[in-house]
Specification:
The chain is of the alpha+beta class. The protein folds into two domains: 167 residues, no CATH class; 240 residues, no CATH class. 39% of the residues lie in helices and 19% in strands. The chain has a seven-stranded antiparallel sheet. Strands 11-10-9-12-13 form a five-stranded mixed sheet. Strands 8-16-17 form a three-stranded parallel sheet, with helices on one face. A hairpin with a 3-residue loop joins strand 4 and strand 5. Helix 6 packs across helix 9. The chain starts with 12 loop residues before the first strand and ends with a strand. The N terminus and C terminus are likely disordered.
Length: 428
């Protein structure tokens, strides 16, 4: 069954990340705030474990928040942290406890000072005055004005909902959560500005028009240096300053890899959204794919999940559409011309149709382009609330393989009638 989903005004919030430049005094205060929220997390988690052993019940957000006044009287240093940040930490733990049964995540763990990054959130007040953003600095409670690198302006007509302060090795960053006005998605789409996209490992992505986007493989390129630094750890004494310095070196390599990948994914998603109005992709279960030991490292290095999320929110901001087809649709095994299905191994890099009636019978087609073509076709069939304002050539180019009735592009009207009950596709 085809799964058609495009984001329609459900992303009313976006986050922009900036680097903070605090003074030494402010940096010390930030570290104290991070330590306070970490201590509160561990205290409440320990309380939940003991309570569950005795009563088989948990202490959730409201009850945890009611304990804060007493904790502040017993631990005066908690007052140096914004009360809203302490409340938010209780809410975070509440969500983690509930997600154990809802989403299957593991039980919350205690946070160690040297193994977890300090992070805390400050929500905006109802008047919108507690957090204020300026070109050179950010105003926040308990700290006042903190310099930051505002490398891009905040979107117009956006409102600050909250900020999240995070320490990454030796640097501090702030993620500003913004509320943006609802943007109406485009209802009339040029059929020539639609594309199917097949994500892969050999090539990062293959488009239905034949374009291939090669992956930079950031982790693979830095793996040799990373292994060298990791091997040096065994020559260091546990608990010494040298081993701490070595861990810092390794962490900085991982940070460089992460930042380079993130920057590249931002550029690729922006280029695709600016060029196409409808982008059709697969609804991949990346978590299941990562369980394959032979490919897990290569798949993780691609950053598919981040890329898809970038596509979605950039499409929302532009009023465009990202359509997902079903997870188990046989896009690779299906002939993009006649729809015949045949078995395919991972090592088979070309698709040869076995249907004698197919116009592409015994013709070798690139495996990834064939899959992207199917994703494009099925994605358009599943896109709802859209009218394609163009001539039919824009649609027929999806599977342009001849004039015979066996081609999917020539039976698009028939498929449209059969699927009319669960989609709304109009070709003008």
């Amino acid at each position: 069954m085809l799964l058609g989903k495009y984001i329609n005004n459900i992303m009313a919030h976006i986050a922009h990340k900036y680097k903070l430049l605090p003074t030494k005094t402010q940096e010390k205060t930030l570290a104290q705030m991070g330590g306070s929220t970490r201590w509160l997390w561990n205290y409440m988690l320990d309380l939940n474990q003991k309570t569950y052993q005795e009563t088989k019940k948990f202490v959730f957000a409201i009850d945890m928040a009611n304990l804060l006044p007493e904790l502040k009287s017993q631990n005066i240093w908690l007052k140096d942290t914004p009360s809203q940040s302490l409340q938010q930490k209780c809410i975070d733990l509440d969500r983690s406890l509930k997600s154990v049964w809802k989403s299957g995540f593991g039980f919350p763990k205690f946070k160690a000072k040297h193994k977890s990054s300090d992070s805390f959130r400050i929500p905006q007040n109802s008047k919108g005055t507690q957090i204020r953003a300026y070109g050179t600095h950010l105003f926040m409670p308990k700290l006042g004005k903190v310099k930051w690198v505002m490398h891009r302006p905040l979107p117009e007509n956006s409102k600050i909902k909250s900020i999240t302060i995070t320490k990454d090795i030796d640097d501090w960053f702030v993620s500003v959560l913004l509320e943006i006005p609802n943007i109406e998605p485009m209802k009339y789409i040029d059929a020539n500005k639609t594309v199917g996209l097949d994500l892969g490992v050999a090539s990062f992505a293959t488009l239905s028009d034949g374009t291939k986007i090669e992956s930079p493989n950031f982790l693979k390129k830095s793996l040799r240096k990373l292994k060298h630094y990791q091997r040096q750890l065994k020559h260091k004494t546990k608990g010494s300053n040298n081993i701490k310095k070595q861990y810092t070196k390794i962490a900085k390599i991982h940070r460089d890899i992460r930042n380079a990948r993130m920057n590249w994914l931002h550029h690729q998603s922006k280029d695709l959204v600016s060029k196409y109005d409808v982008i059709c992709i697969e609804n991949l279960k990346i978590k299941d794919l990562l369980e394959k030991k032979q490919m897990s490292r290569s798949i993780a290095d691609q950053g598919w999940g981040i890329f898809v999320s970038h596509l979605q929110y950039k499409a929302v901001l532009s009023g465009k559409h990202v359509t997902k087809i079903g997870t188990y649709e046989p896009s690779t095994k299906t002939c993009s011309c006649c729809g015949n299905i045949r078995s395919m191994k991972l090592s088979d890099r070309v698709y040869v149709c076995e249907n004698p009636k197919c116009n592409d019978y015994l013709k070798a087609k690139d495996r990834d382009i064939n899959a992207a073509t199917n994703i494009h076709f099925w994605g358009l069939m599943a896109t709802e609330g859209v009218s394609f304002v163009s001539n039919t050539d824009g649609i027929s180019e999806i599977n342009a393989c001849g004039d015979t009735i066996t081609c999917q592009s020539n039976i698009i009207d028939e498929v449209s009638m059969k699927q009319e009950a669960r989609r709304s596709l109009v070709v003008v």
